[in-house]
Amino acid sequence: MKNNYQNQKDRAREKAVDIMYRLSDVAISYGEIATIQDYIYKLGKRYGLIKEFTENGII
User: Fold this and answer.
1) Which of 11, 2, 5, 12 is nearest to 59 (CA)?
2) What stretches in the chain show pLDDT beneath 70?
3) Which of 5, 18, 28, 44 is the most buried if burial means most Cβ atoms within 10 Å?
4) 48 backbone φψ class: left, alpha, beta (φ>0; ψ -120 to 50)
5) CA 38 to CA 13: how far, in whole Å?
6) Cβ count within 10 A of residue 33
C-alpha cells in the first residue's frame, strides 16, 4: 500500500506530463514557458523527480 508521500509523488508526475501534453498544441510566450518550467521544477524538487523530469525532457 502506498503512503501519502508516494501518492503525492505520483500525482506530481502525472501533473507534469499533463501540463507538457497540453502545451504541445498551444502557442505561448517565453515568459509563460519560464513560469511553467519553474513550477514544474519546484514540483520535481519537492518529490525527488528532477532527474526523471530532466531525462524525459519535461524540464
Assistant:
1) 12
2) none
3) 44
4) left
5) 15
6) 11
